[in-house]
Specification:
The structure is a single chain. The chain has two domains: 94 residues, Sulfite Reductase Hemoprotein, domain 2 (Alpha-Beta Complex), CATH 3.90.480.20; 154 residues, Sulfite Reductase Hemoprotein, domain 1, CATH 3.30.413.10. By secondary structure, it is α+β, with helices and mostly antiparallel strands. The longest helix has 18 residues. It is globular. Strands 5-6-7-10-11-12 form a six-stranded mixed sheet. Strands 1-2-4-3 form a four-stranded antiparallel sheet. A two-stranded antiparallel sheet has the order 8-9. α2 runs antiparallel to α3. Bound molecules: iron/sulfur cluster (3 copies). One iron/sulfur cluster binds next to loops.
Length: 326
Amino acid sequence: MMSLNTKLVSKNAYFISKNRGRVTARVRVPGGNLETKYFPVIQEIAERYGNGTVHLSARQALTIPGIPAEKIPEVRRLMASYIQGVEVAAGVNITDVESGFPTPLPPNIIACIGSRDCALGNVDTAELAQKLERTFYPGGLMLKMGVAGCANDCVKVHMQDVGIIGMVEPLYDPARCLSCESCVKNCPSSALRMENYKVRRDGLSCLGCGECVLKCPTGAWSRGSPYYRVVIGGRTGRKHPRSARTFLEWINEEAVFRLIKNIFAYLEKYRNKNLPKEHLGYVIDRTGYGVFRQEVLQGINLGPKAKVARYINFGGYAYGKGVAYD
Ligand code: SF4
Ligand code: SF4
Ligand code: SF4
């Protein structure tokens, strides 16, 4: 039986399997959005080298199990066209596509289908995810990121280190308003009220969800500028799972990218370098939210509408603690 150099194997996003001598290939799908022209190469790798199946990971990557380790060089040759098309042609800086994905750690950037196909979508999530991929992949640090098109968060960015949620500023045209109150009744944060047969919006309570736009029968509400809510510190894992909390809201796209850049710098500075990877939330627990906030907001113009959380209580729980059993 051939012994596997696990470091060497995982270097290009192959994983050691419980089945000896076999590995699983992990294939990135930025934003969970893949043109069907790439299906044949995935099918060929799975059928010729794997066990004929493809597992869809919870984080929207494709995983191809059952590949004999000695076949990795052949799989790499096939995978090169996928990496060239999905990553390099989209602007990701990968110089050697023949070697496979250049790093095992930075996880796939997940996204819901967003405004490309969902009526509730406030932003083009796949486009933003692909832009994040271009800007921050390969990199070397683990930061699980997700993009949701609206506050419904179908893609569960609240379980990511950083979740980006599309918001919209609703614009009101009183001339088109019939005073039917549909928007008022459907606003999830009670931000709308009627006053002299016209609608008033409380900007401080508004979530930017866009529900009023959808519920208005006359088009009196329309979508204004897109903004983003950023939630941080979500994670699963065997130690202490918890949901992310809102850090920022009503920030623009440029501020999002500057923020992510600063978060990577913060991680580089404060992460536990004895561990191969550490969730952002654990690092924030160690430094405190105040240090995190100060470091990652440096040099960013958040804009006049932005709101920053004064403090964050993450909650969550540790497995086996604080649970009463019958
Ligand atoms: S999160 Fe919003 S935009 Fe995305 S799929 Fe769900 S409802 Fe649609
Ligand atoms: S965007 Fe959402 S929260 Fe804001 S006013 Fe419209 S329905 Fe209410
Ligand atoms: S749903 Fe439209 S028409 Fe009805 S009250 Fe609201 S803005 Fe006016």
